[in-house]
Amino acid sequence: MGGTGPLSGAGAAALAWRVLLWVVLIGLLLEAGYRAYDIRLWAIKDYGPIIHEFDPWFNYRATEYLAQHGWNKFFTWFDHQSWYPLGRPVATTIYPGMQITAVFLWQILQRWDSSWDLNQVCCYMPAWFGAATSLFTGLLTFDALAGRDAGPMPSGAAVLGAAAAARCMAIVPAHLSRSVGGGFDNEAVAIGPMVATFAFWCRALRPGLSWPWSFCAAVSYSFMAASWGGYIFALNMVGLHAGLLVFLGSAGNLYAAYSLFFVVGTLGAIQARPVSVLVWFRSGFERPRLRTGAITFSSRGGLCFTAPVGFLIVLLRVLLRPWRADADWFMLALGAVSYFFARKMKRWGCAVAFLADVALASAEFRLGRSEHRRGAWLDQPVPRLLRLAAVMGTCYLLKPQVEEFLHFCDHKARWSLSHPQIVTKAKDGTLIDDYRQAYGWLRQNTASDARIMAWWDYGYQIAGLANRTTLADGNTWNHEHIALLGLALSSPQGEAHKIARHLADYVLVWSGGGGKDDVGKSKHMARIANSVYRGHCNEDDCDQYGIFPDGQPSKMMEASLVYRLCGRGSLDERLFREVYVSHHRRVRVAQVLDVSASSRRWAASAEAKRCDAPGSWYCPGSYSPGLQELFDPNATHQEALDYQAAYATRVQEQLKEKPLPNQEGLPPGSYLDSCRGCLISGTRLTCSHCRAPGSPSIASNLEYQKCPLPQINNIQGRLQCEPKPNAASIPRGGYQRSCKGCDMQGDVLHCSHCGTASGNQVPASFEVLRCPAPAELDNDNGRLTCRGVPNDLACPPGPYLKSCQGCRSEAGHVSCALCRRADGRQVAAEAAAGRCRWPAQLENQDGELVCSGSLAGPYKQSCSKCQQLDDVLSCECAKSDGQRLVSSYEVSRCQSPAELHNREGKLTCQGVPNGRRLPPGPYLESCEGCHVFKETLHCSHCLNAEGLQLKSSLEVAACLSQQRKPENVNGAPSTGGRWPVSARGHYTSTLGHGHTVRGHSGLAAMLQALAALDDATLLTVITETLQRRPELAPGVVNGAVPDLTYAPADSLTKRRATGRIKQVTGATGVGFIDCPELKAVFGHDVYVHKNQVGAFPIGTEVNFAILLSKDMKPQAFDLQPTGAARGAAVQRVGGPDHGCFAIHALFGVTASPMEIPGERALVADGYWCATLGPLLILKPPILEKHLWPIPSQALRSLDVNTGPLGVLTTLWGTLLLHEPLKARLGHERVLKGVCGINVAASCGLAALTFLAPSRLLLAGLAAQVAGFAAWQATSFAE
Questions:
Q1: How many CB atoms within 10 Å of residue 862?
Q2: Per the database record, which ranges form the Cyanovirin-N domain (predicted)?
């Protein structure tokens, strides 16, 4: 009878287990979401809320238009400010879901907090949707692992897989690249709805109520279709899965779910105009057309290894349990499609996360219960325990790969993906803001209707930031118009001006160099122009246009407008005038002179608009007659005739430079495919044009009769002989795949042709004896190197082990046989490891082993060759003028949170914390680490004129007036080590009026003036002085008490301190209390007599009063347990621990103090450890970051004798309250032991769960947690 009730024992255990798993799942998913949000904010933290790149600026401009003009005007917006003079129909060429969502969120946030502006919302949206994507990824994986017949009871494998998948999606770089803060692009918003579509679709196929989940899938798909052109991928994926299930004979909710999804999803999708034109003519199985980053996972870390394993596990699940494999088939299909796209687009599909996490969670998945014979044996205790051991071993083996993957993701997100591009930083940390400054100049210094000619990459930024008319942008919908723009920029100045004067008022170019400026892009401009305007180049690929390997431009490039606009040649000032150059010379703006007024009037007239119907909003513009006449063969205008004549003359001259056909009878070889104008001249083969990557064709010749083989190749524009085959006697190694002509000459291996990263082939050699087996030789960018020489296990750890091989450690000395240099060579190196103190480590600096500095700080950006020996760090640091100086610093003087900086070639420590209540003065600008002790101001880091930081001190009691302020005079006086204090005791103090008083005579005059005041006035002066200069109070009190007066009672009841008893010496009776606050003021621990300590054990945290001895040292009196009433009698000995001391000691987690009385704190420690101990073993970042102790109001005093609830709810509370045990072993030992026992018991319960299918043993842990909650509730009630 007892087992059939609504909440029997087994039912209660199952309910507790289910609730616990759901709570764990929700908590882990929220942690993954927070991680996804936080890692995407690096760009905003470093640069502020700035829109990134190019396309997001159009998205932001469209969002602004929607917010300002409303829904109706947005969907009838023909933008004549872009693609001048044609314009762009925005309503039919945009997916508006992102803009609508941004405005919707902005309006909601405005109601909540009016400080939110539209730019902030657009910058934070990618991070918000990135977090949502991670959550939906976890839910999709959870559904796939739970199975179609899973009820409300989630499995541990499903929870583990969901958490791992969500965390993976949160940090994987390929998804980060499309969703960092500020990356306001379509993919950032649409990938989340895509994953949500998959999650809801898989959930709709499970037994039970299906239509709500199918409806949610359709809505998510509709939202994706309104936001991104990749919506067809989601539609095809669902259609593929449905068709596969129909083919396999699946029943259940498939037909109803797919019908509802297709109908509702299609109706929702066609509301977006770009979709409505196409969707009626497409089936659900059309080939996806994804061009940029549609699939969002990178092949890095352990994913590429675990995903195939997960794929095989899913296939095994399908074969062993076909009755519940709907979601498994979806995972297989998604994995196959994703791998297909990974080969096409160099990215992994979403399925990589799911499949990888299936592999990690495979130890606990269920292959069927007892009602199905196949797979039932896996539920037996022994197989389940074996699976547990297997997954634990797998996790242990994969731990290095996982740690490397996490580090790679964090580093990638911080340093590679979080740069707005429109704003960047130099290597020294200097902010480079040239692009925004240039657009700001355009906005402030040009007319509002000014037209800006620039390459189409920059159109979005010019329109969004400068609010000026542009000729083209990233929409690239009109190839002929872009060709006209490319023709103007890549033509000579005279021809370019005749085009530009009809289109633009200014020309903007990027001129930063390094291949990313417009000179590097200009070959694309010429090729696009030549595809429309034939003859612009003499060959289709414009081979004649470019820069040669020696940096010299070709004839056509040197004459082009863009080359001269970038500052590499002179401009014709009759045609163009340079009007702006940015601070770092990355952007230049030139004004177009003699602009055609008739063409400007034409573009603004109604005649130029070609509306599709009267009164329609769709009204594209047209070119002016003057511009069209330039390309009209029947033109009569003189400007057009001059342009056509100049163009024809240039074409004829370029045809003369076109290479001739190759001569007959040439020697064979691959050069015949890429070299032209080749002929035999005597014994030499000469070619006038040999193609080279990234360069115009180069002339080359070769003594072909000296080649060992009758075969000639073109290598990077140079004719080279085909090398002879490798000899059979050469050692094995990977170099044989990229090196040819290899042969042994004594002990040295010589190769005549080893390939480099640039495609060249160079000779290389290596002494074979330096590479003993099992190591092998390899080709490292044209150099033969040895790889695989093992290192001694006794070698100290350090980064040098990644680039050094054959390392041995003997008697504190490390020697390595092969350390890689920057040029690729491998040399021997050695170092005295015994002088490299931890945390400093040995590293390889260009073939030399040095002890790298352990100090953090920005000095590493401008200092090199840093080496730490013992406690001294030495670096070669750069000054602002480029000169480099050798500077040293004591490591022990610059500890965290301080950091080391480079100050004009000198290492200095900055950020050393000061003490409290320091006297004001200009010394604070150049001194750090200051505190007041015994009427003396001590500073550990005062800067002198030479840039050194010295220890200095000053007797502050000498400065009696507020107008006197200490100052730093060159860091230290000539007497050595003190502030400016002479041997006779004179001091220097700066007066507020700007003059200085020196010596005893000034002090005597001041004392005489003060003594002449009446009592009330003098008392006011002293009181006000002490309030403004509280550091003087100890000296005043010490001079008055006890000779002139008695100490007040408030000195024992107010201004009390808290600390921990460190030690008590029995012989002398003197002890010490560790109090960080007082130690910062006085420089040492607080003295305490053993009579004051009484029965308090060592380590107890106590509250005490402070009195000063005659030599101004603090002493503790009236010791009381922390949290007890001040001045109250001590009822019981044995103060509370600092939070959970055992947690702090065992797991390295620091908790804040809990101000609670005596024994109650011990019970709190027990419950704190019992609840969080197992979780703290893993130390998840979110828990470690936000961990706080139990609130003090929840731990009000409870008499343990009359309130047995605090003892009976857990065994550990009883042990902690056992007085004889504490007296015998000590409070700390008991607490550590109890926490350790609890952790071990919790782990044992988790392990035993795999041997108990009913999970009854977990009821103990659930009851423990429930008892803790009830105990807190009781505390609150009382």
A1: 19
A2: 670-786, 799-909
Tokens encoding 431: 């902010």
Q: How many CB atoms lie within 10 A of CB 1040?
A: 12
Expressed in angstroms, the distance from the first to the final Cα of the chain is 38
Low-confidence stretches of the chain (pLDDT < 50) are 1-4, 149, 276-305, 323, 346-374, 960-963, 972-1001, 1125-1218, 1248-1258, 1268, 1271-1278
DSSP 524-536: HHHHHHHHHSTTS
Phi, psi of 602 (to 5 degrees): -65, -45
* CA pair distance 738, 755, nearest whole angstrom: 6
What residue ranges in 424-511 does DSSP mark as E strands?
A: 424-425, 431-432, 451-453, 469-470, 506-510
Q: Which residues contact 777 (CB under 8 A, 6 or more apart)?
A: 731, 733, 734, 735, 749, 766, 768, 771, 784, 785, 786, 787
Burial label for 289, CB within 10 Å (0-12, 13-18, 19+), is: exposed
Q: Residue 369: which residues within 8 A CB-CB, separation 6 or more? A: 376, 379
Distance separating alpha carbons of residues 126 and 137, to the nearest angstrom? 16
Does residue 1120 contact residue 1128 with C-beta atoms inside 8 Å?
yes
DSSP-based three-state secondary structure for 840: coil
| Cβ-count burial 83-93 (b if 16+ within 10 Å, e if not) | bbbbbbbbbee
pLDDT tens profile 435-488? 999 999 999 999 999 999 999 989 999 999 999 999 999 888 899 999 999 999
Say if residue 1188 is exposed, middle or buried (CB neighbours under 10 Å; 0-12, 13-18, 19+).
exposed
Report the amino acid identity of residue 838: W
Contact between 768 and 735 under an 8 Å Cβ cutoff? The reply is no
DSSP 463: I
Which ranges constitute the DSSP H helices of 1105-1180?
1141-1147, 1158-1178
Q: Which of 417, 488, 449 is nearest to 188 (CA)?
A: 417
User: What pLDDT is stored for residue 310 in this prediction?
Assistant: 54
- Cis amide bond preceding 85, omega within 30: yes
Helix or strand or coil: residue 646? helix
- Using CA atoms, how far residue 729 sits from 743, 744, 1016, in Å, is 7, 7, 106
Q: Which amino acid is at 243?
A: G
Q: Which of 541, 522, 521 is nearest to 531 (CA)?
A: 541
DSSP 1187-1239: --PPPGGGG----TTT-THHHHT-HHHHHHT-HHHHHHH-HHHHHHHHHHHHH
CA angle in degrees (0–180, nearest 5) for 62-63-66: 90
User: For the segment 695-705, what is each residue's pLDDT rounded down to a tens digit?
Assistant: 999 999 999 98
Instruction: For residue 323, give both structure tokens.
Output: 């009755």
Dist CA 821 CA 1238 (whole Å): 52
